[in-house]
Amino acid sequence: MKQLKTYVTLAATLPLIALAAPASAEPIKNIVLVHGAWVDGSGWKPVYEILTKEGFNVTMAQEPETSFADDVAATKRVLDLQNGPTLLVGHSYGGSIITEAGVHPNVTALVYVAAHAPDVGEDEGTLGKKTPSVLAKTEGAIKKTPDGYTYLNPVDFPKLFAPDMPKGQAEFEARSQVLAAAEVFTTPLTAAAWKTKPSWAIVAGNDQIINPDLERWYYERAKSRTIEIKGASHSVYESHPRQVADVIIRAAREAEQEASTAKK
């Protein structure tokens, strides 16, 4: 797959410069954070704490991971509760969820954090096979229960999912996994919100779960404003919360400004 030729570097975009929204724009104060497979919304806590201190109304969607349709419905349920424009953020498999759920009228823009971003008719499982990750090449790392639910081998979890996290925390997450129905990875999307709504994205440079080349390809196709955090693992939202939060804040400010300009 064609790689991005140019990146907007962290040095060029951060630290964030706050942009005052014109009076005609309705401020984007709502942010919904969507987690990925095998984990839950608690991993967003470091990012949540930064965003709330900046004055945002932040909500974590908790997906059951029982089916793609269930997870999209759980996210839309949270979006229904938002009062006003909302920034929708997804990590990993959560990227597929926000791509489908992001057509919701409350959603103004999208942020992909080391996440999948399929098109209509595509699924992340098939795309992942075309650009395999270290996970895909690690025999026995993905386990499956007799009733079709998947999880990462707890022994492999720290080194694949969270190698830049404290060992104890990574081991705890390995033992507190939310098992995900295998079908969530192979269900084709019926909507692609990145086609009609602006998006921002973060590539995790040392991602072992999703090949960084696949992330780059996704975001180039979606015309996302993209940065790469060198050396970051798939757990970039936990290991680099300040950088991730800064991109989210930047996305909210820029989307707000662009919505105002479009009204003129």
UniProtKB/TrEMBL annotation:
<dbReference type="InterPro" id="IPR052897">
    <property type="entry name" value="Sec-Metab_Biosynth_Hydrolase"/>
</dbReference>
<dbReference type="InterPro" id="IPR000073">
    <property type="entry name" value="AB_hydrolase_1"/>
</dbReference>
<dbReference type="InterPro" id="IPR029058">
    <property type="entry name" value="AB_hydrolase_fold"/>
</dbReference>
<feature type="domain" description="AB hydrolase-1">
    <location>
        <begin position="31"/>
        <end position="247"/>
    </location>
</feature>
<keyword id="KW-0732">Signal</keyword>
<protein>
    <submittedName>
        <fullName>Pimeloyl-ACP methyl ester carboxylesterase</fullName>
    </submittedName>
</protein>
<dbReference type="Pfam" id="PF12697">
    <property type="entry name" value="Abhydrolase_6"/>
</dbReference>
<feature type="signal peptide">
    <location>
        <begin position="1"/>
        <end position="25"/>
    </location>
</feature>
